[in-house]
Design brief:
Helix 1 crosses helix 5, helix 3 runs parallel beside helix 6 and helix 6 packs parallel to helix 7. The protein folds into 2 domains: 52 residues, no CATH class; 103 residues, Methane Monooxygenase Hydroxylase, Chain G, domain 1. The radius of gyration is 21 Å and the shape is elongated. Strands 2-1-3 form a 3-stranded antiparallel beta sheet. It is mainly α and 172 residues long. It contains 7 helices and 3 strands.
Length: 172
Protein backbone atom coordinates (compact mmCIF):
# COMPACT_ATOMS: atom_id res chain seq x y z
CA UNK A 1 0.00 0.00 0.00
CA UNK A 2 2.03 2.94 -1.26
CA UNK A 3 -0.28 5.83 -0.64
CA UNK A 4 1.34 9.23 -0.76
CA UNK A 5 -1.46 11.04 1.06
CA UNK A 6 -1.68 10.61 4.81
CA UNK A 7 -4.43 12.17 6.90
CA UNK A 8 -3.87 13.19 10.53
CA UNK A 9 -4.87 9.77 11.86
CA UNK A 10 -2.38 8.05 9.53
CA UNK A 11 0.38 10.41 10.62
CA UNK A 12 -0.37 9.75 14.28
CA UNK A 13 -0.50 5.98 13.68
CA UNK A 14 2.77 5.83 11.75
CA UNK A 15 4.51 7.96 14.39
CA UNK A 16 4.21 4.98 16.79
CA UNK A 17 7.65 3.58 17.67
CA UNK A 18 8.31 0.00 16.64
CA UNK A 19 11.25 -2.27 17.37
CA UNK A 20 13.54 -3.16 14.48
CA UNK A 21 16.37 -5.66 14.18
CA UNK A 22 19.54 -4.81 12.26
CA UNK A 23 20.01 -7.27 9.38
CA UNK A 24 23.76 -6.66 9.16
CA UNK A 25 26.52 -4.65 10.82
CA UNK A 26 25.85 -0.98 10.15
CA UNK A 27 28.97 1.21 10.27
CA UNK A 28 28.92 4.29 12.50
CA UNK A 29 25.33 3.68 13.63
CA UNK A 30 26.14 2.59 17.20
CA UNK A 31 24.60 5.80 18.53
CA UNK A 32 21.19 4.20 17.93
CA UNK A 33 21.78 1.94 20.92
CA UNK A 34 23.74 4.39 23.07
CA UNK A 35 27.25 3.65 21.81
CA UNK A 36 29.58 6.31 20.46
CA UNK A 37 28.92 7.80 17.04
CA UNK A 38 32.04 6.04 15.72
CA UNK A 39 30.89 2.57 16.86
CA UNK A 40 29.20 0.11 14.53
CA UNK A 41 25.67 -1.12 15.14
CA UNK A 42 26.02 -4.91 15.52
CA UNK A 43 24.00 -7.35 13.47
CA UNK A 44 20.75 -8.41 15.20
CA UNK A 45 20.81 -5.34 17.47
CA UNK A 46 17.31 -4.12 18.34
CA UNK A 47 16.49 -0.42 18.02
CA UNK A 48 13.27 1.58 18.20
CA UNK A 49 12.19 4.07 15.56
CA UNK A 50 8.93 5.56 14.27
CA UNK A 51 7.01 3.20 12.00
CA UNK A 52 7.15 5.56 9.02
CA UNK A 53 10.96 5.44 9.13
CA UNK A 54 11.13 1.71 9.87
CA UNK A 55 8.82 0.94 6.94
CA UNK A 56 11.23 2.51 4.46
CA UNK A 57 14.33 1.05 6.11
CA UNK A 58 12.87 -2.48 6.09
CA UNK A 59 11.89 -2.71 2.43
CA UNK A 60 13.93 -3.13 -0.71
CA UNK A 61 16.38 -5.74 -1.95
CA UNK A 62 18.76 -5.68 1.02
CA UNK A 63 17.05 -3.74 3.79
CA UNK A 64 19.25 -2.73 6.73
CA UNK A 65 16.45 -3.40 9.26
CA UNK A 66 13.54 -5.78 9.80
CA UNK A 67 10.48 -4.67 11.74
CA UNK A 68 9.60 -6.83 14.72
CA UNK A 69 5.84 -7.37 14.94
CA UNK A 70 4.56 -5.19 17.82
CA UNK A 71 3.18 -7.07 20.81
CA UNK A 72 -0.33 -5.69 20.32
CA UNK A 73 -0.62 -7.61 17.02
CA UNK A 74 0.77 -10.90 18.28
CA UNK A 75 -1.54 -13.91 18.75
CA UNK A 76 -1.39 -13.81 22.57
CA UNK A 77 -2.67 -10.23 22.69
CA UNK A 78 -5.23 -10.72 19.90
CA UNK A 79 -6.64 -13.84 21.56
CA UNK A 80 -7.39 -11.78 24.67
CA UNK A 81 -9.13 -9.18 22.49
CA UNK A 82 -11.06 -11.90 20.64
CA UNK A 83 -12.29 -13.50 23.86
CA UNK A 84 -14.40 -10.46 24.72
CA UNK A 85 -13.98 -7.74 22.09
CA UNK A 86 -16.71 -5.51 23.51
CA UNK A 87 -15.00 -4.92 26.84
CA UNK A 88 -11.39 -4.93 25.68
CA UNK A 89 -9.75 -1.52 26.37
CA UNK A 90 -8.52 -0.76 22.85
CA UNK A 91 -6.89 2.55 23.79
CA UNK A 92 -4.63 0.71 26.20
CA UNK A 93 -3.22 -1.08 23.16
CA UNK A 94 -2.96 1.97 20.91
CA UNK A 95 -5.34 4.82 20.06
CA UNK A 96 -4.70 4.13 16.35
CA UNK A 97 -4.90 0.33 16.57
CA UNK A 98 -6.65 -0.21 13.22
CA UNK A 99 -4.78 2.48 11.25
CA UNK A 100 -1.35 1.10 12.14
CA UNK A 101 -2.27 -2.47 11.29
CA UNK A 102 -3.45 -1.35 7.83
CA UNK A 103 0.03 0.07 7.20
CA UNK A 104 1.66 -3.09 8.56
CA UNK A 105 -0.20 -5.67 6.44
CA UNK A 106 2.12 -5.42 3.42
CA UNK A 107 5.24 -5.88 5.57
CA UNK A 108 4.13 -9.12 7.22
CA UNK A 109 2.77 -11.11 4.28
CA UNK A 110 3.23 -14.43 6.11
CA UNK A 111 0.96 -13.25 8.94
CA UNK A 112 -1.41 -11.13 6.91
CA UNK A 113 -4.23 -13.65 6.39
CA UNK A 114 -4.45 -14.69 10.06
CA UNK A 115 -3.92 -11.12 11.22
CA UNK A 116 -6.59 -9.74 8.88
CA UNK A 117 -9.12 -12.34 9.97
CA UNK A 118 -8.38 -11.75 13.64
CA UNK A 119 -8.61 -7.94 13.36
CA UNK A 120 -11.85 -8.25 11.36
CA UNK A 121 -13.39 -10.49 14.05
CA UNK A 122 -12.37 -8.04 16.78
CA UNK A 123 -13.82 -5.14 14.78
CA UNK A 124 -17.13 -6.95 14.14
CA UNK A 125 -17.43 -7.73 17.83
CA UNK A 126 -16.75 -4.13 18.78
CA UNK A 127 -19.11 -2.62 16.17
CA UNK A 128 -22.07 -4.16 17.98
CA UNK A 129 -20.98 -2.54 21.22
CA UNK A 130 -20.35 0.82 19.51
CA UNK A 131 -23.81 0.88 17.92
CA UNK A 132 -25.38 -0.02 21.26
CA UNK A 133 -23.62 2.96 22.85
CA UNK A 134 -24.56 5.25 19.95
CA UNK A 135 -28.28 4.32 20.10
CA UNK A 136 -28.52 4.29 23.89
CA UNK A 137 -30.16 7.45 25.20
CA UNK A 138 -28.52 7.19 28.60
CA UNK A 139 -24.93 7.18 27.29
CA UNK A 140 -24.29 10.85 26.59
CA UNK A 141 -20.52 10.53 26.57
CA UNK A 142 -18.61 8.12 24.37
CA UNK A 143 -16.96 5.14 26.03
CA UNK A 144 -13.33 5.88 26.90
CA UNK A 145 -11.97 2.58 25.58
CA UNK A 146 -12.57 3.21 21.86
CA UNK A 147 -9.75 3.78 19.40
CA UNK A 148 -9.88 6.67 16.89
CA UNK A 149 -11.78 4.83 14.12
CA UNK A 150 -14.25 3.46 16.64
CA UNK A 151 -14.78 6.95 18.08
CA UNK A 152 -15.60 8.26 14.59
CA UNK A 153 -18.04 5.37 14.11
CA UNK A 154 -19.65 6.17 17.46
CA UNK A 155 -20.14 9.85 16.54
CA UNK A 156 -21.60 8.96 13.13
CA UNK A 157 -23.99 6.48 14.74
CA UNK A 158 -25.00 8.96 17.44
CA UNK A 159 -25.63 11.74 14.89
CA UNK A 160 -27.69 9.38 12.73
CA UNK A 161 -29.72 8.23 15.71
CA UNK A 162 -30.43 11.80 16.87
CA UNK A 163 -31.45 12.95 13.38
CA UNK A 164 -33.75 9.93 13.06
CA UNK A 165 -35.35 10.82 16.39
CA UNK A 166 -35.84 14.42 15.22
CA UNK A 167 -37.53 13.26 12.01
CA UNK A 168 -39.71 10.57 13.58
CA UNK A 169 -40.88 12.52 16.59
CA UNK A 170 -41.60 15.90 15.06
CA UNK A 171 -44.59 17.42 16.81
CA UNK A 172 -47.19 18.86 14.51
Amino acid sequence: MDVFYLDCNDIMATEKSVKCRANRVLPRMGYLIGLSGEADLPEHAVVEMPFWKAKHLSTGRQPPFSIILPGMYRPKFLNVALAEPAVFPMTRALPQFYQLVVHMFPLFSDLSIDLRECIARIYRGRVRMITDYAYNESSVLKPAHLDNWETQLFHIGRAGHLSLLDICFVQF
